[in-house]
């Protein structure tokens, strides 16, 4: 999504490489590139100018401490590192630092969320996604079908409500303000503590729409008014947000289609223009593809360093924790088989689009040529080839290559999966290479720091107070894992295992609680 922005910031970083000093002329040259990329990404001009002014002021006005010490020892900061850190901080500030959440009612009334926006932004679907998210957080939401004008809008919400197991309140012939007011009493009878109003939209902002929304707001006094914005419409989203905020005083924005090909201008502009934060982001069509908006992750992705924290959070949602731990130990010992590889493929498929997942890797933009596309069907083809293998072949894939010219195994697998024998052999070769690389990482996890962009991404995360030391240096293993290549064999008692798992479970709960 942020390819245009990332290209501009990568170009700026490249110009700084090898410089011992950044003078005013160098800053001006670099900011020109960034300005072009921001405008190409459809960021609002006032936001662009304000961002560049702040970066220029800090870049020229701060004394850089080039050497410092931390837990890992003495380090040196280059002018390029310092400039990247400045841009990272300003991007986060531009989008609103920290995750936002709903404003919860404190007067004994249910927490009310009023969803507003124009036609085509995904308001009804987003309302259902929010209800699903709240239900997963042990809340009791109720949806209110207040869009009585769009054909099939009420039926759509009822279908979605049934799909996620959330009640939908609707009374035929009742006006939206009356309906929303009546829903409060109905919610009390159903023991629902969150009410989500799916209000009507228009093709454009008009007076009847705003009058109706104003009446709903006055009669229900919602604690949250979320404007649903389509990330694909760029500058129009900023103008729309400004007008809705002026008339309704919105409390936040929900950005939809963040997994698409939008240039990212809306995400950077809305907070700067309205002062209201992006609270949630829609990352796909499925009902579980609404997540809290993380400015820190977006900033590092724009800078070309991916979003490691977001990637880990995505992975935690779709994997069995105990099985993932067992598989990780096998990977790091070099005992990885195509059975575990198949499990990893299925987990990645559950996480959403392949491109969206890969873009969160710190080295994605360094490893993938500019203009190259990600083949979304590649994992399905690999899965088909693995399904066509025998149990022995999945456990010991090297036997597929042992046939030489008599590659009957590869031919049989290719026929069963609709692929070519060369593709089967190429898959096995790449798998063997990957297994060997992971085995070396198991011996020395600090090798991860040599991947393009990885050390920079970890350093930015550390600057934000996140504990990433276990991923970085000194031959340490990821937290919770024993080094299989330590001095001599080491046995772990069941009591130690239980203690470790309890500690990890508590840490996961703490992370999830901090994200709420």
How many separate structural domains?
3
Instruction: Name the CATH class of the largest domain.
Output: Alpha Beta
Query: What is the mean predicted local confidence, pLDDT?
Result: 77
State the oligomer. Answer: single chain
Strand order of the largest sheet: 5-4-6-3-7-8-9-10
- Our count of helices gives 22
Number of strands: 10
Low-confidence stretches: 470-492
Largest sheet: 8 strands, mixed
What CATH architecture of the largest domain do you see?
3-Layer(aba) Sandwich
User: How much β-strand is present in the residues?
Assistant: 5-15%
Query: Which overall shape is indicated by the principal axes computed on the Cα atoms?
Result: globular
SSE class: alpha/beta
C-alpha-based Rg, rounded = 26 Å
Helix content: 40-55%
**In CATH, what is the homologous superfamily of the largest domain?**
P-loop containing nucleotide triphosphate hydrolases
Distance between the termini: 25 Å
CATH topology of the largest domain: Rossmann fold
Task: Explain what the structure shows.
With 516 residues, this protein is α/β, with parallel strands linked by helices. The protein folds into three domains: 3-95, Four Helix Bundle (Hemerythrin (Met), subunit A) (Up-down Bundle), CATH 1.20.120; 111-302, Rossmann fold; 308-486, Signal recognition particle, SRP54 subunit, M-domain (434 Repressor (Amino-terminal Domain), Orthogonal Bundle), CATH 1.10.260. Helix content is 54%, strand content 9%. The chain has 22 helices and ten strands. Strands 5-4-6-3-7-8-9-10 form an eight-stranded mixed sheet, with helices on both faces. It has a two-stranded antiparallel ribbon with strand order 1-2. The longest helix is centred in the C-terminal third of the chain and has 23 residues, at 421-443.
């Amino acid at each position: 999504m942020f390819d245009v922005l990332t290209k501009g910031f990568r170009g700026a970083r490249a110009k700084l490489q090898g410089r011992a000093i950044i003078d005013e002329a160098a800053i001006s040259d670099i900011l020109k590139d960034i300005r072009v990329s921001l405008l190409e990404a459809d960021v609002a001009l006032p936001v662009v100018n304000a961002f560049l002014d702040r970066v220029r002021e800090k870049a020229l006005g701060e004394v850089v401490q080039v050497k410092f010490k931390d837990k890992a020892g003495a380090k040196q900061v280059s002018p390029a590192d310092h400039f990247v850190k400045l841009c990272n901080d300003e991007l986060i500030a531009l989008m609103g630092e920290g995750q936002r959440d709903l404003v919860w009612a404190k007067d004994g009334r249910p927490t009310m969320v009023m969803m507003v926006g124009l036609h085509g932004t995904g308001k009804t679907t987003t309302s259902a996604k929010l209800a699903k998210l709240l239900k997963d957080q042990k809340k009791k939401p109720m949806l209110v079908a207040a869009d009585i004008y769009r054909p099939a809008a009420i039926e759509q919400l009822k279908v979605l409500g049934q799909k996620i197991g959330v009640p939908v309140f609707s009374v035929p012939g009742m006006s939206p303000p009356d309906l929303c007011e009546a829903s409060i009493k109905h919610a009390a009878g159903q023991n629902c503590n969150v009410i989500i109003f799916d209000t009507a939209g228009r093709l454009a902002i008009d007076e009847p729409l705003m009058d109706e929304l104003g009446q709903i707001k006055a009669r229900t006094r919602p604690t949250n008014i979320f404007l649903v914005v389509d990330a694909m419409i760029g500058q129009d989203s900023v103008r729309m947000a400004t007008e809705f905020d002026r008339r309704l005083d919105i409390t936040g924005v929900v950005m939809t289609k963040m997994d698409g090909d939008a240039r990212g201008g809306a995400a950077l502009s809305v907070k700067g223009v309205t002062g209201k934060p992006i609270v949630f982001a829609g990352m796909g069509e499925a009902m579980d593809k609404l997540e809290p908006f993380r400015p820190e992750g977006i900033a590092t992705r724009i800078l070309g360093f991916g979003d490691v924290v977001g990637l880990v959070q995505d992975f935690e949602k779709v994997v069995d924790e105990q099985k993932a731990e067992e598989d990780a130990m096998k990977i790091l010992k070099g005992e990885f088989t195509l059975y575990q590889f198949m499990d990893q493929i299925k987990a990645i498929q559950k996480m959403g689009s392949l491109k969206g997942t890969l873009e969160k890797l710190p080295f994605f933009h360094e490893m993938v040529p500019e203009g190259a596309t990600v083949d979304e069907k590649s994992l399905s083809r690999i899965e088909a080839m693995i399904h066509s293998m025998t149990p022995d072949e999945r456990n010991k894939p090297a036997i597929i290559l042992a046939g030489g010219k008599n590659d009957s195994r590869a031919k049989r697998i290719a026929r069963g999966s609709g692929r070519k024998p060369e593709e089967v052999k190429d898959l096995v070769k790449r798998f063997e290479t990957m297994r060997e690389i992971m085995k070396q990482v198991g011996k020395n996890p600090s090798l991860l720091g040599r991947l393009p962009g990885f050390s920079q991404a970890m350093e930015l995360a550390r600057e934000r107070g996140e504990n990433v030391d276990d991923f970085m240096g000194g031959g340490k293993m990821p937290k919770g894992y024993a080094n299989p290549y330590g001095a001599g064999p080491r046995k772990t008692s069941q009591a130690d295992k239980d203690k470790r798992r309890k500690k990890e479970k508590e840490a996961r709960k703490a992370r999830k609680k901090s994200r709420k």
